[in-house]
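Worked example 2:
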Amino acid sequence: MADFLAKRPAKTPFFYWFGSLDPHRLYTSVSGRKAGKNPTSLRAKKSGNGRSF
């Protein structure tokens, strides 16, 4: 990747897409709770217009 970036013309846009065949771990039910996460303590962030996501 560094070689590609070094050789491309300056100020020239490019597109890079990395596609992985296995991007996620397997789903395990209630894994968050087992790790000590409490879903009721989560807070949604406000967007620029004041609404929650």
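The chain has a mean pLDDT of 80. The two ends are 35 Å apart (CA to CA).
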